[in-house]
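User: Please predict structures.

Assistant: First:
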Amino acid sequence: MRLVSWGLLLLLVSCTTYSSTALGKPENNIKTSVFLSPKFELGPGSVANKFYFDVDFPRGHIALKSFNAEVVDEAGKSVPLQETYLHHWIVVKYHQPKNVSHNNNQTDIVELRNSGLCQEDVLGQYFGLGSETRGTATDIPDPFGIEIGNPSEIPYGYEEKWFFNVHAIDTRGVEDRMGCTECRCDLYNVTKDGNGKPLSPYYKGGLDCCPDNSHCRLKKGFKGPKRSLYLRYTVKWINWDNYVVPLKIYILDVTDILNVSKGMSPKHTCKVSESFL
């Protein structure tokens, strides 16, 4: 049995302004930009689980209208999921002090989660999830938009930035493609978690068994070249004005437990988990 605890919901807010402000709305043309993440390399059976901070992103006080992403090769061609499985990708907003150089070991950033119910930074991303996001429409109709870059919400001395987490698995020549994409521990020969602690004998598969730079078992004698890949993402937005009706992002989780008999729990128990029995 496989349990995947992901879900996405966009909640409309301030909808009372729709009828009064949409009429007579001035022209606010949608702008589009296409960006590439930093390069990551994958050989047959290998895994990349990368974090990229301060990625290219539209700046200023704007309203996001859509965000789409996919893995492409150096020629810009889409890579089939049968060859490179996009386990997940997420996009997170954060604040960082100005004039501080960025790296992948951030200690001074403040993550800005979505408006969802989950605790702390669990499922706090703005966009992303798994391979199913390829081809999924994310266009937001007028007059709605996701507000970002509001100067009044950025603390003095800080600036708004974005980071990506991209987790991809190269399944060319692997012994068991499904097992590799499900991160079965026996196929990766992984027995310890990221902190070096032994995994439970009941943990048969999940994120702990397919970390960055790990390898899934290949068919005997299979050889193939490494290739350079990128996450290509397309962002559409408009300039913010008083005619835009703001949206908030909520991500719900199937594992979230609420004690109905005693009322809603003040702390939600969302989990990013996959289990295999």
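Second:
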Amino acid sequence: MFTMKILLPGNLNLNYLQLGEGSPVVLIHGMGSDHTVWEGLIPLLKENYRVIAVDLRGHGLSSKTSGPYTIELFAKDICLFLDSLNIDQAHFMGHSMGGVVLQELAVRHPERFKSLTLISSFACIDTPLEEVLTNLKDILIEEGYKAFFDECLKVANSPEFIRKNRVLFSKIRDENSRICSVSSIVDTINACLDIKLCCDVNLADSIKEDTIKDIRIPTLVIAGDEDVFTPTHHGLKIHESIPNSRMEIIEGGCHNLLVEKPVEICSVIKQFLDDL
């Protein structure tokens, strides 16, 4: 799959993949990841949609700008990205932190959404999630990217999936270590740790009045019942906060649902989109 780059204001290059035709579906990855995390879903979605998977700033092959980063900054980048592609409205799907970015965007610019799908996502940092993120940051700083990658595998995937794909993961780790920016990932983790306010108040410090309870966009929340990174209560909290949202809990699903169970996830997503 060949990617393209688009230059945005501020000399920001965002790398992205675009396949298929039809109504646009924009995919946003999580912390420390990139567009390749969607490779299992993209072939299934591109049959009916124009699928666009973007690398956030500091990730993948996009610009590794200096920090600090914020969730609001990532959301603004997506707005500029959409403007550059002349996309007024789209279906949006976000994994983990990517879902937080899309919640921010949905609060600020609901007119840009046809629908919102959140996979293994969260809207606030509780103590267990803070501890996981802090541990990942410490490993990244003290032991380097490869040790960080290995620890991310453990908290995001099932042991069986890791065993079956050990060679592939080793290749991905080595490739990513050559292009990643440790400082950008640290800045991204810090952006996540700054999400201190829960769903029933503000999504981010910068939002003074609007909350995700004001979101009226058709929303699907997907969580795995074996996710130890963002356990199901995070998804349930979002579901309870966004009126008329739909919740699906995937049996045997870990944090990287879209990687381990792309066919099952795509079936749930397609049913949601077909019902709109």
